[in-house]
Design brief:
The chain has helices at residues 29-44, 67-70, 75-94, 111-118, 145-153, 155-164, 170-176, 188-200, 204-214, 221-231, 236-246, and strands at 5-10, 13-18, 50-55, 60-62, 100-104, 107-109, 121-125, 129-131, 168-169, 181-183. The radius of gyration is 17 Å and the shape is globular. It has a six-stranded mixed sheet, sandwiched between helices. It has a four-stranded mixed sheet with strand order 4-6-8-9. It has one domain: 2-enoyl-CoA Hydratase, Chain A, domain 1 (Alpha-Beta Complex). With 253 residues, the protein is α/β, with parallel strands linked by helices. The protein binds coenzyme A. Residues 23-24, 26, 63-68, 107, 109-111, 133-134, 137 line the site of coenzyme A. The site of coenzyme A has 16 residues, from helix 2 and strand 6.
């Protein structure tokens, strides 16, 4: 069976590749569980000081949560999905005590962009496209996107991106401050390695403290997001949006 993620370690850097290229690396339960256990073990691994997260294949970083897995979920199952995912993966990465770099090698959509936003630094391939298209499925982002996007790009741009659901280019993402750098697609892993080398020059305990301090914002927006996300599973818009995607047609809202 295909491994949900590929892990390699070299020179104090751990390289994680999400490995479902035929499904554009969509986050299914197996990928989420593998990310959970891998980050848990990397936290204890003294040989590792920086983590790079990327997608396998040329087309996608991650094209979102796996729509086919949650299309028939109830409100309670939907709440559980995002609550577990946030706790085990998204918040774990955001609070991870070693720098985590997202190397966005292609589409970063929905849960994929939320995953990149949970990382501490983001490098995008010039060919990447980024967006939170959940409203086209009758949903809202459920893995912290409504909270992290406004922090990175401001409320005005976050409103535009989330309410239109439209993708932006890597160049636009750089202008918005959504990514730290844009490089030619063929250079993305090389650039991530260069950034990792820069990070390795500094004191790890100070970096862990910096991450903890920077991420110490509070507010109940994350909880409200989960509740609103789950409540949308009982709406006509959600049924129409997900059925349209699965049947490869345009939704009619
Ligand atoms: N969940 C489940 N499957 C997905 C997926 C997702 N989020 N994103 C892509 N896939 C699957 C497609 O169903 C397709 O599977 P198939 O070959 O078995 O039919 C395969 O990945 C390739 O995707 P496809 O849509 O054929 O590629 P494309 O180049 O025509 O389009 C996208 C690329 C990214 C524009 C399109 O896949 C897309 O819109 N994906 C969903 C994005 C989204 O809404 N994400 C938010 C989820 S909350």
């Amino acid at each position: 069976m295909e491994q949900p993620i590929l892990l390699a370690k070299a020179d104090r850097v751990a390289w994680i590749k999400i490995n479902r290229p035929k499904k554009l690396n969509a986050l299914n339960a197996a990928v989420l569980e593998a990310l959970h256990s891998t980050f848990e073990s990397l936290e204890q691994d003294d040989e590792v000081r920086v983590v790079v997260l990327t997608g396998n294949g040329e087309k996608a970083f991650v094209a979102g949560a796996d729509i086919s897995e949650f299309a028939s979920f109830s409100k309670a199952e939907a709440y559980n999905l995002v609550a577990e995912g946030q706790k085990n993966v998204f918040d774990r990465i955001a609070q991870f005590p070693k720098p985590v770099i997202a190397a966005i090698n292609g589409y970063a959509l929905g849960g994929g962009l939320e995953l990149a936003m949970a990382c501490h630094l983001r490098i995008a391939a010039a060919t990447a496209a980024l967006g939170l298209p959940e409203v086209s499925l009758g949903l809202i982002p459920g893995y912290g996107g409504t909270q992290r996007l406004p922090q990175l790009v401001g409320r005005g741009r976050a409103m535009e991106m989330i309410l239109t659901g439209e993708m932006i280019s890597a160049a636009q993402a750089l202008e918005y401050g959504l990514v730290n750098a844009v490089v030619p697609a063929e250079d993305i892993l090389k650039t991530a390695a260069q950034w990792a080398s820069k990070l390795l020059k500094n004191a790890p305990q100070a970096q862990a403290a910096a991450i903890q301090a920077i991420q110490a914002f509070s507010g109940d927006g994350y909880e409200l997001e989960k509740q609103l996300f789950a409540a949308l599973f009982e709406t006509e818009g959600f049924k129409e949006g997900t059925q349209a995607f699965l049947n490869k047609r345009k939704p009619n809202f």
